[in-house]
Write a structure and sequence with these properties.
single chain, alpha+beta, two-stranded antiparallel sheet
Length: 86
């Protein structure tokens, strides 16, 4: 069996990343797809990019601080978080 090699870019496994596990995927040149050694996820580059965008949605407000939750049906107000300030 051939040794696994990293692809041209380091992609995170979308399946593992949704469970807060940061695992790089490997690239199979023969099949032209990426795969994860931990969970067995396989997919083309387009699939991996699409699913990683869905995972980024989860962390979209990580560096923002909620200023106001608003009333019903009003949007939440965010402000940039400045580390070290109280």
């Amino acid at each position: 069996m051939a040794q696994a090699t990293k692809g041209k870019l380091n992609f995170r496994c979308p399946s593992c990343f949704m469970r807060d596990i940061d695992i790089d995927m490997f690239y199979d040149e023969d099949k032209g797809e990426y795969y994860c050694l931990r969970c067995g996820f396989t997919g083309k580059e387009e699939d991996v990019l699409r699913l990683n965008e869905a995972a980024r949605y989860r962390y979209r407000a990580m560096k923002l601080r909620v200023v106001d939750f608003g009333e019903d049906n009003e949007p939440i107000t965010f402000a940039p978080h400045k580390g070290g300030e109280q």
